[in-house]
Amino acid sequence: MLLTRMFATELGHRGLRCNAVCPGLVVTEMTKDDMTPSFDAFYRPKIPMRRYSAPEEQARVVLFLASDDASFVNGATIDVDGGQLSGFWYAPSSRHRPTKRSPGGAISAGQRAGAGTAAASTDPPVHEGRLDDLDRRIIGHLQQDGRRPYREIGRALGVSEGTIRWRVRRLLDSQALRIVAIADPFRLGYRVLAFVLISVESGRTPRSSTPSSTSRR
Q1: What is the DSSP letter of 195?
Q2: What is the pLDDT of residues 139-186, one digit of tens each?
Q3: Considering only CA atoms, which of 81, 66, 87 is closest in space to residue 22?
């Protein structure tokens, strides 16, 4: 995605557009043999549309981006995955594990460790895309700065640090939230970005094309 945005920025003034298509699970001659019943039972529930993509559905998006109808679309990344990467739909049975309680009904100290406060452990699990207002406000703060201390977020939202810590862990465990680091290679001191294109033909040894590179002026 970074490479797509870089090309869009560097080459847009020349009338060249660069966009990316990110396909989901596509049924093809190559993949259909791997889609066993166990594979299907695991992956299909994670796709909101509850089915896999046909190659034609991917091709139509590519044709759109290459057409004049997308003449002002540049630097975009389009997920054609039926919503799989939306982050809010998943199979609860494979992800969420109910909290174990002691015979007296209280949450054990080991389970409470890292949650911050015992009261926070009573929050309902995140599943099937349901987020409350506090979840969304926490996500908003982390979108601005994924390293923002929980204490600062809690102070801004009027709740305890432990509540924020528990909520974030709950969002991460349910895949409703992902915190990643995306580095800008030019800010890291790399002045040249090089890439290699590989062409593969059935029955033949792969060969690489002549490496090319681009640099920021």
Answers
A1: E
A2: 999 988 888 999 999 999 998 888 898 889 888 888 788 887 777 777
A3: 81
CA distance 70 to 125: 41
Q: Does residue 62 belong to any structural domain of this protein?
A: yes
State the Cα–Cα distance between residues 40 and 59, nearest whole angstrom: 23
Return d(Cα 141, Cα 179) in angstroms, integer: 12
Residue 179: phi, psi to the nearest 5? -110, 120
Q: How many CB atoms lie under 10 A from the CB of residue 84?
A: 19
CA angle (118, 124, 126) in 5-degree steps: 125
Residue 31 sits in the same domain as residue 72: yes
Whole domain around residue 44: which residue ranges?
2-86+183-215
CA dihedral 112, 115, 119, 124 (to 10 degrees): -100
Q: Is residue 97 part of a domain?
A: no
Please answer whether residues 27 and 61 qualify as being in contact, where contact means their C-beta atoms are separated by less than 8 angstroms: no
88 Cβ neighbours under 8 A, 6+ residues apart:
128, 129, 131, 176
Rounded to the nearest integer, the mean pLDDT of the chain is: 76
| DSSP string across 115-160 | TSSTGGGGSPPP-TT---HHHHHHHHHHHH-TT--HHHHHHHHTS-
**Contact partners, residue 47, CB within 8 Å, separation at least 6:** 24, 25, 81, 82, 83, 84, 89
Collapsing DSSP to helix, strand or coil, 164 comes out as helix
Counted domains in the chain: 2
